[in-house]
Amino acid sequence: MGVYTDLIREARELHPDIAGVSETETAEGQCRISRIAVETEEAARALDKPVGVYVTLESAALIDGLEPDMEDTVKALTGELSRLLPEKPAAKLLVVGLGNRNVTPDALGPRTADGVFVTRHIRAHLPEVAPEGMREVAVFQPGVLGTTGVETVEIIRGLVDTVQPDALLCIDALAARRAERIASSIQLNNSGIRPGSGIGNTRDGLTQHALGIPVVAMGVPLVVYASTVVADVVSALAERSDAEGAAALEPKIREIVDERYGPMIVTPKEIDTLLHRASALLSHSINRALHAGYYDEIHALCN
Amino acid sequence: MGVYTDLIREARELHPDIAGVSETETAEGQCRISRIAVETEEAARALDKPVGVYVTLESAALIDGLEPDMEDTVKALTGELSRLLPEKPAAKLLVVGLGNRNVTPDALGPRTADGVFVTRHIRAHLPEVAPEGMREVAVFQPGVLGTTGVETVEIIRGLVDTVQPDALLCIDALAARRAERIASSIQLNNSGIRPGSGIGNTRDGLTQHALGIPVVAMGVPLVVYASTVVADVVSALAERSDAEGAAALEPKIREIVDERYGPMIVTPKEIDTLLHRASALLSHSINRALHAGYYDEIHALCN
Amino acid sequence: MGVYTDLIREARELHPDIAGVSETETAEGQCRISRIAVETEEAARALDKPVGVYVTLESAALIDGLEPDMEDTVKALTGELSRLLPEKPAAKLLVVGLGNRNVTPDALGPRTADGVFVTRHIRAHLPEVAPEGMREVAVFQPGVLGTTGVETVEIIRGLVDTVQPDALLCIDALAARRAERIASSIQLNNSGIRPGSGIGNTRDGLTQHALGIPVVAMGVPLVVYASTVVADVVSALAERSDAEGAAALEPKIREIVDERYGPMIVTPKEIDTLLHRASALLSHSINRALHAGYYDEIHALCN
Amino acid sequence: MGVYTDLIREARELHPDIAGVSETETAEGQCRISRIAVETEEAARALDKPVGVYVTLESAALIDGLEPDMEDTVKALTGELSRLLPEKPAAKLLVVGLGNRNVTPDALGPRTADGVFVTRHIRAHLPEVAPEGMREVAVFQPGVLGTTGVETVEIIRGLVDTVQPDALLCIDALAARRAERIASSIQLNNSGIRPGSGIGNTRDGLTQHALGIPVVAMGVPLVVYASTVVADVVSALAERSDAEGAAALEPKIREIVDERYGPMIVTPKEIDTLLHRASALLSHSINRALHAGYYDEIHALCN
After folding, report:
1. Can you give the pLDDT of all 303 residues of chain D as single tens digits?
2. DSSP string covering C146-204, please?
3. Interface pTM, i.e. ipTM
């Protein structure tokens, strides 16, 4: 009934008993890290998430902004991102900030991309300042279908042809099932991404299979779909009161919500602050992970 | 149960039978115009809207963007605004764009203010180009409490002292009760405004009584509160199915929604397009209304 | 001595007597139109402008903003643009806004692109609303080398491969030789463009020869290079006073300016207003030219 | 001959021998600190800078972005700012970001203000989270005359009445005489500010005398006036070649420049990067200075 989530942990909550999924948990200070592997196509279908590894970092840092927690989260995120990227030293990277810059809850990709250090041109144009062993990073904000007229997937395939990176890193805002998850976690995966899925459109995906290079996706939940909100309320209702009464009302509720709220999103009023924190955390961690050996030099050049 | 609306027409729907309210309807082409007068304090309390005149222009123009409808709406809005403003020729005006520019559904005030012609300084600084009979207009975007640390009402009171206008025109995004009302109407009133009320905070108001000058408020519904969405669904449910069953569930639903979605807003994904159209329509109509006799000259100077 | 101009008319002033150039002048109301054809490679080298047709529309509209002049300019620009584009009905177009959105005098391309109607996706995604005979237009803002790490020319070649348009339309801010030309004209040409040339970097170009499709470039002068300013002053000095004295000082002046002001630009303080007018004029004229037969319908869909 | 500078050090270079000025120099790591006291009205007139203390921090940090230098500069700036502000513990502060956000080289004030922590409302609205001893800071971006119609000085006087701070801190972009000074220093003073002076308009000032509270001004040179560029070149010319020849040409040059480049500014093409670094450095140092005892807590709340 209209429940949609981009979060692997929520998908698992909805289907706790399926086979073909393994999970481990660790922590980095205040930041809890869960690694879920979707191992079979059957599990992938059940969860509506492709086969691959999904890392979730949970931390109150994005919501309450507390500095020591934020540092734990940066450290954890830097580590996890390094692990998911190709082992090849100095692999060339294409970073893509997905989403619509002009809609605050959909602007995580572009805003993060603003802060990612661009280095691909430095060796050619400013060889004297290029740090030794510098990784080449190109960064794009491809826009959305409505602002370009072209499917984001098509554009990114073209960029991959042009830039010839060793791996692709995509950042996008995610949709959660439960409002309390908004801005409470960061999700990374190596199974690719379907741009636009986060805002309700399902189009072809960006995967290692399709592009021939590893694809890492990274995001933070910033919205819930209106349809999901109502489904969530009905489901909570069933738990707290007359489950049968709630079940009987379900088809009617679905009809009303689809009619009235189908294409709408739910987001906190203070979404600008959450976006600011989330994009700063992501771009900082990306820069740390990509330029580990010479961070200070590249910070001076690119910041 | 958490239903909130800034729209007088929705307030009336919820309380159709109260006394002390009169209404007339007219049309300008495709644009329907309703004028509702809240005439008694009792009616004001029942509707949660201060005594005054509320004009609502309904038009599909903002949603479907069709040009002839848009022209009708501009014409109607220009006329209604002129009627609400002081009759004194060339009255000095302070225009204030309320809301948070960084949250798309709350940015109507600032974005409209961007397009309003600023003329207060022209006579003093560029007397040779000032059109004869030019009205002096000052424009501000006071920000929100979170970005300034000062209540918007305090700031505007200070600006009124500084600028000494004959009237105040405030623009703000509005909250509707029903999603279908989003971007479907423009509301004007002469009863003042409580900045922040549109995003769930009620603070002291800007009224003729408080400021000593006429206050006209203008807005377009661009959000629904999450709590209102669920209330709306429950109420529709009662109409379509077992009213008693729905009523019995109401207290539980209220509890769940307050817990989880209290401070959230619901808005269409294409809010950037709606905001663009609404702010262009408002600023254009304001400029037409304020500078009727010499529009072309002032357009050349200020656009 | 450091004089650089993107304007064909200024290039001609500097080399008035070369062969292989023809010019005609017409007018549309207050807007004067000059068409200069650079006909031989020799003329192209002398003028530092590739072989092709250059149309210059001169009008005070952008500077003084007067409405009737603005209408003449829109009409003239719409006509000239239509003439330069492929005659094939409904040819598919890729529109590219060049330059750096974050540097006001370099933001003409991105700001114009913001206002160009995007239609390429409409037939596939919303066939029921697509006007009959609708031209498919895709729009990009590729950023600059410093924000992407990739040469703009490379990106656009990739986009042309992806989008497969029948023609390319590029918009970019131009550099003038004389400050008085800033915002006083619009230049169109069919000889391609070298992105970055307008800000002092010469890189490979976007031409029909390189891309296999017609390329139309469009721009407005918004800056003068600092080095050009001083050269201009020295040249005016020679006219007004002791020509020999000025000539003798020239090498010294060149040395001083190169040392101190090499990479700097000169721009009016009110560049934000000029940018606003120029980008609105360009995007409006582009939309008029590209969607002549069904402008109202597409305006409703896309604005 | 059209030489204008906001920098006390450049003003002194032009008038090295006047009495009533004292200077001391210190350093904080790579950051050199000069303190110049303009002690008499006569010196103030000669230098065109009001009586007061001017602190200049010179550092390559803003230009080359090197991290250890940046830290030295933050430390020095934090210290100097603390020294200039009232000694009263937890004095209430009004921070004002002057200038035009839409013109990149004039956007230092607004962009710095974006990053200053706003705390004035916390004690009243969120008392449970307010750090003990928290200083109340209100922040405004008053716009410019062209966007409001009101002199910035009038607006700020009104804000001071409304907010009742113990001191005023103003941030504004500065004009230098020499291009090499752009982004190479930060200037602080306690003698007030004339908003708009940095872009060529002289209006009434914001001073302790006028407002009754201490006023600290803070800025970074980001432009040179076009007229100053030419004057600078002529003056360098006189040093390097025939001084008499240069002197003879001076009146002609002045005439030409005034005619053609009077109201123009000169700025580096990479002004977006310089602005980004300068505003981040200023806002970070302001936050450090204002909330010394509880920086981590307030960072979590406000960032």
Report:
1. 468 899 999 999 989 999 999 999 999 998 999 999 999 999 999 999 999 999 999 988 777 777 677 889 999 999 999 999 988 878 899 999 999 999 999 999 999 999 999 999 998 888 888 998 899 999 999 999 999 999 999 999 999 999 999 999 999 999 999 888 999 999 999 998 876 544 444 446 888 988 999 999 999 999 998 888 877 777 777 777 666 666 777 777 778 777 777 779 999 999 999 999 999 999 999 999 999 989 988 988 888
2. HHHSS-HHHHHHHHHHHH--SEEEEEEEEEESSGGGTTSEEEEESS-B-TTGGGT----
3. 0.90
Give, as one character, the DSSP assignment of residue C136.
P
What whole-number distance in Å separates Cα of residue B93 and Cα of residue B169? Answer: 7
* Total residue count of chain A as it appears in this document: 303
Mapped onto helix, strand or coil, the DSSP state of residue A87 is: coil
For C123, the token pair is 């037939």
Q: How close is the nearest chain B Cα to the Cα of D138, in Å?
A: 5
pLDDT value for B227? 81
Contact A141 C146 (CB under 8 A): no
Put simply, whether A149 touches C (Cβ < 8 Å) is: yes
Q: Do A65 and D296 touch (CB under 8 A)?
A: no
Q: Select from A297, A302, A299 the least CA-distant residue to A131.
A: A297
The residue type at B85: L
Helices (H) and strands (E) in chain D, counts: 13, 9
Check if A226 contacts B (Cβ < 8 Å).
yes
Chain D neighbors (3+ CB pairs < 8 Å)? A, B, C
In the structure encoding, which two tokens stand for residue B134, read together? 């030019």
- Which of D66, D299, D301 comes nearest A300 by C-beta? D66
Dist CA D118 CA B33 (whole Å): 42
The per-residue b/e assignment along B139-150, b for 16 or more CB within 10 angstroms, e otherwise, is: bbbbbbbbbbbb
Instruction: Judge: A139–C118 Cβ closer than 8 Å, yes or no.
Output: no
What was the pLDDT predicted at C200? 41
Is B149–D125 a contact, with Cβ atoms under 8 angstroms apart? Answer: no
Asked whether the beta carbons of residue D65 and residue A276 sit closer than 8 angstroms, the reply is no
Cβ within 8 Å, pair B118-D147:
yes
Contacts of B266 in chain A (CB under 8 A): 226, 229, 261, 264-266
Q: How far apart are CA C197 and CA C189, in angstroms?
A: 15
Q: If you measure CA to CA, which chain D residue comes closest to A277?
A: D303
Q: Are C130 and C175 in contact (CB under 8 A)?
A: no
**Segment (H or E) for D215:** strand D215-225
Interface of C with B in 265-294 (CB under 8 A): 276-277
How many residues are there in chain C? Answer: 303
Q: Which residue of D has its CA nearest to C262?
A: D268
Query: In chain C, what is the straight-line distance between the N-terminal and C-terminal CA atoms, in Å?
Result: 46
Nearest Cβ partner for D163 among B120, B150, B159: B150
Q: CB contact, 8 Å: C203 with chain A?
A: no
pLDDT digits (tens, 9 = 90+) for D190-212: 998 876 544 444 446 888 988 99
What are the tens digits of pLDDT across the range D96-118? Answer: 999 999 999 999 999 999 999 99
Between A243 and D3, the more confident residue is: D3
Query: Cβ of D66 under 8 Å from any chain A Cβ?
Result: yes
**pTM, rounded to two decimals:** 0.93
Q: Which two tokens stand for residue C26?
A: 């017409």
What is d(CA A53, CA A35) in angstroms, rounded to the nearest whole number? Answer: 7
Give partners of C (≥3 CB pairs < 8 A): A, B, D
C34 CA: distance to closest CA in chain A (Å): 33
Q: What is the pLDDT of residues A141-168, one digit of tens each?
A: 999 999 999 999 999 999 999 999 999 9
- Say which of C226, C237, C271 has its CB closest to residue D229: C226
